[in-house]
Amino acid sequence: MPKDVTDNLYRNAPLYPDKRRLKISIVHHDTGAIFHMVRYFDEKLDNNDVLSVIWCEWNRGSGKESQRFLNTQTRNLSVGDVVSIQEGGAGGPSKHYVCEAVGWDQLREENLRVHGVIGGRGLVKRI
Prior knowledge:
By secondary structure, this protein is an alpha+beta fold.
């Protein structure tokens, strides 16, 4: 097999084939700061479980803060912030959640502008 074909095979192969590959985007509603990351989660975890993990990793005092969160020296997640979860690779389906006083509410695409975010096909940016 030519080298460029094998390179493409390995480039597109999942790093952890038994895990869910998710692109996570966090948008702070007040500052407009956006943080993107790719994470691998156990297949058994649903999006509510993923949101709980992200909540702990992006809040000081949880004891489970991520190194990325600590390095950014940003504020904790708070009410009104949006977390987007994109399944798989580029163009995969995205779901968007707004942080509430207790828990999360899933946003529909038509409500993203209300929260100052454009989403769709994995694109999340501040408007």
